[in-house]
Amino acid sequence: MADAEPGIGKKILSFFIKENDEPAKPVANPSAPPQPAAPTNSVAPTVPNVAGTANVDRKFVEHFVNLLEKANLPGPDYFEYKQALQNMEGLGLGEEKQFQAAWASFKAMGNVKDSTILKTSADQYLGILDKDRASFLKDVEKAIKDRVGALQDEQKKLEDANTAFTQQIADIQKKMDENKNRLGQISGEVTEQSAKINANRDSFEITYASFVEQIKSDLNKITQYIH
Questions:
Q1: What is the pLDDT of residue 193?
Q2: Taking the complete model, does pTM exceed 0.90, yes or no?
Q3: What is the helix (H) or strand (E) element at residue 25, kind and residue range?
Q4: What's CA 93's distance to the chain center, in Å?
Q5: In whole angstroms, what is the distance from residue 192 CA to residue 194 CA?
Q6: Which residue ranges are recorded for the region named Disordered (predicted)?
Q7: What is the pLDDT of residues 14-39, one digit of tens each?
Q8: Residues 32, 193: Cα–Cα separation, whole Å
Q9: What is residue 57's three-state secondary structure?
Q10: pLDDT tens for residues 72-112?
Q11: Euclidean distance between CA atoms 158 and 6, whole angstroms
């Protein structure tokens, strides 16, 4: 792997995106409080690709540019041809003519006769990108397992705890209902038992008075009749 030539990163960047250094403009919201002005050196987080089909994330653009810059192969290859092709823009040529003219320029620059070098080198760069993608997706899968999995575990624990609490509340409510029913029964039993006890007391008092009265009567007669 050869050292990257000066400015190769900038060239690679221009191959794949339309550089836009304008600051990102947030959507105005009349109801939102005033926000402090953004720094003048901030740039939009996304940039349009050269094909004009999508806006791509700037941080990933920079990642892939650095990756391809470090992987730049020695000698003329796909990237040098891509630069020659880019130089054909603005000449008023059709797409086919642009590719043919770029190939003629590339052959003269690199003393190359066979276009196989373009496919071979481009395939190598595709392989590097595919390998990086596989590594990234593996990291994503691990992050999902570590972070999302942990959150899902916590979610299940909380749901199980809430289910247990719901059952406990139901059990407590059932016990409270049973207690309430028993309290109603006790109220009637208190009245009933109080009446029985009071009646028994009254009967006791009457019987007691009868005995006392009989004994006192006998004592009075003993005093009267026996000297």
A1: 93
A2: no
A3: none
A4: 51
A5: 5
A6: 22-46
A7: 667 666 544 444 444 444 444 544 44
A8: 74
A9: strand
A10: 777 777 888 888 888 887 788 888 988 888 888 888 776 77
A11: 57
> Residue 116 and residue 109: Cα distance in Å, rounded?
16
Higher-confidence residue of 63 and 74: namely 63
Radius of gyration for the alpha carbons in the chain, expressed in angstroms and rounded: 49
52: left (phi over 0), alpha (psi -120 to 50) or beta: left
Pair of tokens at residue 76: 């003329």
Amino acid, res. 51 = A
* Angstrom distance (rounded) from CA 142 to CA 90: 47
| Cross-strand partners of 47 | 56
* 3-state SS record for 62-131: HHHHHHHHHCCCCCCCHHHHHHHHHHCCCCCCCHHHHHHHHHHHHHHHHCCCCCHHHHHHHHHHHHHHHH
Establish how many alpha carbons lie within 13 A of residue 119's alpha carbon, considering only the half-sphere containing its beta carbon. Answer: 3
